[in-house]
């Protein structure tokens, strides 16, 4: 089955007498055993719940992965992948990742005696010089908010030769556009809050893996740490996934137009979008992904007041997050990446005039008109 059909018809098949076209919502914390010592697939919902398992199976099918794990948030998914790390180990991480991930790395790793290092560009990184205790690399590609592209296949190969595990945060792409496991990654994590759920109504995370031993350890931690996705949110996530491909197609169309609009507007110093030929990662993105996603950032020229611009936008809501049907704008330096120290923000390129857009699926003319009128008001 092709992706679009699988998104609608994949997942578990209900065994009940009444068969709805949707897999049911099992709001039950515990399940009856037939008799003592007779354990069925479902016993207690923290370990396994049918509605959660349905979205785990469905998302794994879409990824082409052996296993999927549904978590209570994208951060819980990342934390689950990081739960494999042992004291004394070291992690390499790309320079601009989601602020929460950075907070975890820069605060929690320290408490757990885990070392880390920021890698500015994994594509040119010399793995020969990596510290011996480095066991793991964490890649977000395209990165948040600067849309840097990492060559997953090339970098995974080099990391694997050094015995390192590769984790990819694939939130911006989803499995519809990019499949990191097929490119050599070991674990894929998602904030499913974003495109998978698609309607800005739930917080959810997904973890994808092929290796049996890694899965066993992750499954154990999912159950014991307990940050599972609730049945209700699993149901909503399944519903969101059914329309993921069509939403994504429209997101991509709109974003390309918004990127070109900004580029031609004369109002920006730089547009950060992998779909533009001038983007440094343009060729790698063609090689490893089916599209460019719907997040783009722009650095407004000094002649434009970025605060007035944000405040004057009518259709782009000023809000953190991304991946919903509605368009959003945010100011990374103060909203999503405020956990990076100011000097680090500047060093990385998260400047005061940088704005990140999550382009929704509204009518493109309305979106462009909104940008046009807000730019006019923001001109000094
Ligand atoms: C790329 C990326 N990864 C992870 C997360 C964390 O996800 P959640 O907010 O669902 O915990 C986010 C949230 O914005 C994100 O953008």
From TrEMBL:
Pfam families: Cys_Met_Meta_PP. Keywords: Lyase, Pyridoxal phosphate. Its cofactor is pyridoxal 5'-phosphate. InterPro entries: Cys/Met-Metab_PyrdxlP-dep_enz (IPR000277), PyrdxlP-dep_Trfase (IPR015424), PyrdxlP-dep_Trfase_major (IPR015421), PyrdxlP-dep_Trfase_small (IPR015422). The modification N6-(pyridoxal phosphate)lysine is found at residue 194. One of its GO terms (cellular component) is cytoplasm. It comes from the Bacteria. This is Cystathionine beta-lyase. One of its GO terms (biological process) is cysteine biosynthetic process via cystathionine. Coiled coil: none annotated. One of its GO terms (molecular function) is pyridoxal phosphate binding. Belongs to the trans-sulfuration enzymes family.
């Amino acid at each position: 089955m092709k992706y679009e059909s699988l998104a609608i018809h994949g997942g578990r098949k209900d065994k009940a007498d009444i068969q709805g076209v949707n897999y049911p919502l099992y709001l039950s914390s515990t399940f009856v055993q037939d008799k003592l010592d007779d354990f069925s697939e479902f016993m207690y919902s923290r370990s396994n719940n049918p509605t959660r398992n349905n979205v785990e199976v469905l998302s794994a099918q879409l990824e082409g992965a052996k296993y999927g794990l549904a978590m209570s948030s994208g951060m819980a998914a990342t934390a689950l992948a990081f739960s494999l790390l042992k004291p004394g180990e070291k992690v390499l991480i790309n320079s601009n990742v989601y602020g929460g991930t950075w907070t975890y790395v820069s605060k929690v790793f320290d408490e757990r005696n885990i070392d880390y290092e920021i890698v500015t560009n994994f594509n040119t990184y010399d793995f020969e010089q990596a510290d011996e205790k480095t066991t793991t690399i964490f890649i977000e590609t395209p990165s948040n908010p600067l849309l840097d592209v990492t060559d997953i296949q090339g970098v995974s190969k080099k990391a694997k030769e050094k015995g390192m595990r590769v984790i990819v945060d694939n939130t911006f792409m989803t499995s519809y556009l990019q499949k990191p496991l097929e490119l050599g990654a070991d674990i894929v994590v998602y904030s499913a809050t974003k495109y998978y759920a698609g309607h800005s109504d739930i917080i959810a995370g997904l973890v994808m893996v092929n290796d049996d031993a890694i899965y066993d350890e992750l499954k154990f931690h999912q159950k014991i740490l307990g940050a599972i996705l609730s049945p209700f949110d699993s149901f909503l996530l399944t519903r969101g996934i059914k329309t993921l491909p069509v939403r994504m197609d429209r997101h991509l169309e709109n974003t390309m137009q918004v990127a070109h609009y900004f580029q031609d507007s004369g109002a920006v110093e730089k547009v950060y979008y992998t779909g533009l030929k001038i983007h440094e990662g343009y060729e790698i993105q063609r090689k490893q992904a089916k599209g460019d996603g719907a997040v783009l950032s722009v650095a407004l020229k000094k002649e434009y007041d970025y605060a007035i611009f944000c405040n004057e936008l009518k259709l782009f809501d000023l809000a953190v997050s991304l991946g919903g049907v509605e368009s959003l704008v945010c100011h990374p330096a103060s909203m999503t990446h405020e956990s990076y120290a100011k000097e680090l923000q500047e060093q990385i390129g998260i400047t005061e005039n940088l704005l990140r857009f999550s382009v929704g699926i509204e009518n493109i003319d309305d979106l462009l008109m909104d940008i046009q009128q807000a730019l006019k008001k923001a001109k000094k």
